[in-house]
């Protein structure tokens, strides 16, 4: 649709995100095991996806800066999100396992990121309206860095917190 989309298609991503967040809110108080040996899988998958995207269309100098800025901002938000999650240890000895519960604040942080993205990025950015493609590529590079930073630093902080809890026999953090 010319003009950046209208009607349902313009709001479909928001409806999808609202549905996912409602699903996550439903299970908010339920603790689930934090499988420490598997924490590296998601960063590896996201890293591979970002590498494939960058190999297909390598960034220029400003693109690398946008990627780095996105990585830094995403890393800060991911680390903060992981600090807001509630961790505790169930069981003792070899039966001990680290459990994680999503914090309402951590979930609201993610919602805030999506809202800010929607507010900050123009809705009608199309090539035929005079916006050069370089702006779209810079935004794409920044978002790739943001996603990578958020996932990597989130998992890294969770791993460090859980490892410290197990090593120091802390049962709630």
Walk me through the structure.
The chain has 173 residues and is mostly helical. It has one domain (9-122, 130-167). 64% of the residues lie in helices and 7% in strands. The protein contains five helices and three strands; from the N terminus they run αβααββαα. The chain has helices at residues 8-26, 41-56, 61-84, 104-120, 133-167; strands at residues 32-33, 86-90, 97-101. The protein has a three-stranded antiparallel β-sheet with strand order 1-3-2, covered by helices on one side. Helix 1 packs antiparallel against helix 4 (104-120) and helix 3 (61-84) runs antiparallel to helix 4. The longest helix has 35 residues, at 133-167. It is globular. Mean pLDDT is 79; it is low at 125-130. It holds the Pfam family DUF1453. The chain crosses the membrane at residues 6-25, 37-57, 63-79, 99-116, 136-158. Keywords: Membrane, Transmembrane, Transmembrane helix. This is DUF1453 domain-containing protein.
């Amino acid at each position: 649709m010319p003009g950046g989309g209208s009607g349902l298609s313009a709001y479909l991503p928001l409806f999808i995100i609202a549905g996912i967040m409602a699903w996550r809110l439903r299970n908010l108080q339920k603790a689930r095991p934090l499988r420490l040996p598997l924490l590296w899988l998601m960063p590896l998958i996201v890293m591979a996806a970002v590498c494939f995207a960058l190999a297909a269309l390598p960034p220029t100098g400003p693109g690398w800066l946008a990627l780095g800025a996105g990585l830094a901002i995403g890393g800060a938000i991911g680390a903060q999100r992981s600090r807001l999650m509630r961790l505790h240890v169930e069981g003792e000895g070899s039966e001990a396992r680290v459990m994680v519960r999503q914090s309402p604040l951590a979930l609201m942080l993610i919602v805030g990121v999506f809202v800010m993205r929607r507010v900050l990025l123009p809705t009608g950015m199309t090539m035929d309206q005079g916006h050069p493609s370089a702006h779209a590529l810079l935004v794409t590079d920044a978002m790739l860095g943001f996603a990578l930073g958020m996932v990597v630093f989130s998992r890294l902080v969770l791993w460090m917190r859980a490892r410290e809890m197990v090593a120091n026999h802390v049962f709630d953090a």
